[in-house]
Design brief:
about 200 residues, 2-enoyl-CoA Hydratase, Chain A, domain 1, 8 helices, two-stranded antiparallel ribbon, 8 strands, 6-stranded mixed beta sheet, globular
Length: about 200
């Protein structure tokens, strides 16, 4: 058990009592999950750090996400690079910002029917009443997000040049697993043998 747990009535839950699926996977198999939009809710990052503090065995990270907050995706990337434990990633649906933690894995798998999608980062600044100077600041920040995203994809092994990636993300750029592997965003299709190793 990572930490003492209590039930909804505040009573301690012991080792031999039923646990939730996420806790079971984290505690017994070092498997973490990211499901839904990436946000400033950082439970998965904190669990990565906790597991890394216990041992440096591989951590497995299952990602099913339509994307979300780019700053949170950058934080995933930074944390994954700092930890001593290898982080193996398994993408089942990875769009937009969710491609960053997928691509950052030490070993990167995709489901046979996974979808991967890249596109330009969305700006957080949508107020049409902004003054001219504020609009200039927004445009500069959007350019920085775009550049950071491309730099990270290249650092993670993308096989395309900066200009090629820039052209691809000018629109929603969807990839099948084999295409994402060829692009350098993943390494292999998940097989039953690999998954069996994960849950041992």
């Amino acid at each position: 058990m990572l930490y003492p747990r209590v039930n909804e009535k505040g009573k301690l839950v012991f080792e031999d009592q039923m646990v939730g699926a996420r806790e079971h996977l984290a505690k017994d198999h070092r498997i973490l999950t990211l499901s839904g939009a990436i946000s400033n809710e950082m439970e998965s990052i904190m669990l990565m750090m906790a597991l890394d503090s216990i041992s440096h065995e591989p951590i497995k990270f299952i990602i099913t996400s339509p994307g979300g907050d780019l700053d949170a995706a950058f934080l995933f990337y930074d944390t994954m690079r700092l930890l001593q434990s290898p982080i193996e990633t398994y993408g089942r649906y990875c769009a937009s910002a969710a491609v960053i933690p997928l691509a950052a894995g030490s070993k990167r798998y995709l489901s046979p029917h996974a979808k991967v999608m890249l596109h330009l980062p969305s700006t957080y600044f949508r107020d049409v009443s902004l003054e001219h100077k504020d609009l200039e600041i927004c445009q500069r920040e959007a350019q920085k997000y775009k550049q950071k995203t491309i730099d990270i994809l290249i650092e993670c092994g993308a096989s395309k040049s900066h200009d090629e990636i820039l052209a691809d993300i000018d629109h929603d750029f969807w990839m099948e697993p084999e295409e994402a592997i060829a692009y350098g965003l993943a390494d292999e299709i998940m097989t039953s043998d690999v998954f069996e190793r994960w849950v041992k």
